[in-house]
């Protein structure tokens, strides 16, 4: 009997996928003020892959990320993190899932000002009552280039360094998936490149799964794959993107929008 036959297809498919949306819809409001923010979106985020989500303002990028991360409820369809279906989880279970399986990186670094860099990095694990794996932590801290800065407080760090602390914090617990919302939006291009390079490294060297919302074609080019949203639907995908290829697609969508 072949190995393929020994492992049923759904189990193998699940193992390679860190998160999945199936016919996911999100509707805000009712009646005349109703907005369909996501319209039956189906997408898989492969484990150990770096995916960028792009699209015009209002196309549903943040909504997709928030629904997948259990930060917002979904109207219909399903959203899975690993094998866990988010719909039906109560608030306590959702909080646990976010804490244990998901890492977050936001545009505003969201560090606690009174804690040192190291304390910020280990905070989520401290709250969860989990001990950070020392070797893993050392590896993250040295890869992210913060070894000499661990006792500094956020105000004593540059924007790029602060965001690298936030990236290290997201990586510390080796989450199933990291969601990054415009992680370089507040950074100059050099600091942004450092943060993105580090995120890409964490995918290559540590098999981390990263999903990142961005408006920036240069940032998107760090990803393995770019998904384009328009009006709450996935309209295009690009693998191994270059900034130029991403820019071309964006221009194409703009032109289509102007003529439709
Ligand atoms: N809480 C809410 N209540 C009502 N409508 C909302 C809410 N949040 C988002 N929307 C609407 O849903 C649609 C998708 O919004 P979303 O924030 O996901 O877009 P986006 O692609 O992330 O935009 P941007 O690039 O501007 O951040 C928009 O039309 C928005 O106005």
Automatic annotation (TrEMBL):
Stored Pfam families: ABC_tran
Gene3D superfamilies noted in UniProt: P-loop containing nucleotide triphosphate hydrolases
Key words, A-Z: ATP-binding, Nucleotide-binding, Transport
Gene Ontology CC: one annotated term: membrane protein complex
Coiled coil spans: none
Span of domain ABC transporter: 19-256
Annotated PROSITE patterns: ABC_TRANSPORTER_1, ABC_TRANSPORTER_2
SMART domains the record matches: AAA (SM00382)
InterPro entries: AAA+_ATPase (IPR003593), ABC_transporter-like_ATP-bd (IPR003439), ABC_transporter-like_CS (IPR017871), ABC_transpr_LolD-like (IPR015854), MacB-like_ATP-bd (IPR017911), P-loop_NTPase (IPR027417)
Gene Ontology MF term list: ATP binding; ATP hydrolysis activity; transmembrane transporter activity
Keyword Manganese set for record: no
Protein name as it appears in the record: ABC transporter ATP-binding protein
Organism: Streptomyces paromomycinus (Streptomyces rimosus subsp. paromomycinus)
Lineage, opening ranks: Bacteria, Bacillati, Actinomycetota, Actinomycetes, Kitasatosporales
